[in-house]
Amino acid sequence: MPVPGMLPSYQRYVNGVPVSVGRKSLRMREKYIILLVFLTFGMVCFGAFFFLPDLRDRVTVSEMRRHIQMGGAEIFVPGKESPGGLQVDNHGDIIDVHKVQDKGRLGVKIAEDVARQKAIDELSNKLKLPKDDTLKVKDAIDQDKEKLKEQEKVKEMEIQVERQREAKDKVHREHSGGEGTRGGEPADPAVKVKRDKVKEMMKHAWDSYKKYAWGSNELRPISKQGHSASIFGTSTLGATIIDALDTLYIMEMDEEFKIGRDWVATDFKFEGSTELSVFETNIRFVGGLLSAYALSGDKLFKDKANHVAEKLLPAFNTPTGLPHSMVNIKTGSTRNWGWASGGSSILSELGSMHLEFDYLSNVTGNGIFAEKVYRIRDFMNQIEKPNGLYPNYINPKTGKWGQHHVAIGALGDSFYEYLLKMWIQSGKTDPVSRKMYDDAVSAIETHMIKVSPGGLKYVSEYKSGRNELKMDHLGCFCGGMFALGAEGSAEPEKYLQLGQDIANTCHESYDRSATKLGPEAFRFDGNTEAKAVRQNEKYYILRPEVLETYFYMWRFTKEQKYRDWAWEAVQALETHCRTDGGYTGIRDVYQVNPQKDDVQQSFFLAETLKYLYLIFSDDSLLPLDKWVLNTEAHPLPVHRVFKKNATVTENDEKHL
Ligand SMILES: *[C@@H]1O[C@H](CO)[C@@H](O)[C@H](O)[C@H]1NC(C)=O
Ligand SMILES: *[C@@H]1O[C@H](CO)[C@@H](O)[C@H](O)[C@H]1NC(C)=O
Q: Structure pTM?
């Protein structure tokens, strides 16, 4: 029951029902007065709403001019910007610019009028003209002068704005990975439209994840809930957030980046008893965090990367130093996958730690990470290799190869990529990794590269002396790798051409499907060329490797077809993978209306959309002589490798 005392005094309660007290005639009069008060109040509000000046932050050009005319030189002394764009004085109070100007203006006006009358008299005497005509001449002259003054002031203001922008850029450069982390806007407006489209896709993917699966590893876009794959163990680690950070950064989606950053600061703990893939954790979490650090200069990311990498260290405690595949981040116990040939470690996994760990040692000054990965490299360098090839399986206890299966696709892929990229990361000064890369590629050329009857060049798999005429979608990254490795090789032209040929074959695998998206694996059996044969090879899970190769080929050749192919992929993604809840993979690329798998992979945001964005950007964004992308497309700065006797100095921090 309401409290009687809270009601107007003329109401009292009888059995809980309000009743009136006092004389009726008085109540009528009161009602009138109240009505009148309300009416007056309403009119005042109404008037205020329509006639008060608009104080929001948009200022038109003509208003700006008016302010310049009225304001004089003081206007060029920049005041502090308040959130709404108003001028703020040193005490943080908003200045009413109009009022301040009004005071002085009257006096000035009178003086001006007197001066003006005097000038007209003098002029009419000189020109010997009637006063009226002189007035016109004088007006014309004044107008011209005024215009000139105005133009000068606008120019001056532009210079001021430009200076401020430069200063801001300089600050940004000093605290981040340097030039080329932002911008890259293409000059051609038609290309810009495409780039904007890719950014819009990123926004849709991110917003959907944020709305339905925030904090989960991945998003289920159709059932609109969180998802976690086995590679992330049983923990909720926000894989999508960490994988997406650097893409948000280069796309200048600052608000989203900040929200992601805040989540990392407060919610990303990386603890609990769970078994994680050492490789996946490294390339996505350590790589993603280090990249966010390198781009933004925000030390939070470095500390978090260090925290995660430390949890992976037990995996390296094997007789050879080759890491196990899995680690329990609470107990530190480690093991290999049950299915991997006789307890073996996997080539691509043990070989894809170097870029992240070397850089981490450089920025923390803690050499332990670099030590681990150099030991792997040196072990792989000295070991006997069958036909010069690196099989996919190797036992970390005995140092002996498992099954002699060799692949540039699944299980092998990024081992080769990292040999090349170690060399690039070292500023192309490390001859050991370059030689290992060159030797590996030449063995692959000899034993694995084939040309189909239809003239398509591809990299087959090699299983105990026999070729399996198949290429994985995962293997399609190698077109870009061959092109990236051309410079510094004995035959640059040959490798650039090899890159183009692989890009073409992988494009064919897309073009020969109903959806214009490529299958997980395609074969060259009999009459089949670049098409999947088995049902379980027909899916597409938003993978990036083909676009990755288009990206490198575009950078190195500038052939329009790579941008055209990338745009074909954008349209196919929009048609078949976009849903109102985010992006999904599909189960069969050969069906016009394919079934959807209901998973938005974190690498879609880390890699697929990043490569697309870069393809439609200017080369000045992430220039390849300054940045090297890890196998999850997380850029790390080149030259930043660990030096044994160096210590981390403040100076280092500034020149990331
Ligand atoms: C990190 O790399 C920079 C650039 O090459 C180098 O000057 C510095 O000494 C390195 N720091 C460490 C601790 O290795
Ligand atoms: C590093 O220090 C050790 C001993 O402290 C020295 O023998 C070695 O030459 C130094 N290496 C470099 C590259 O300066």
A: 0.75
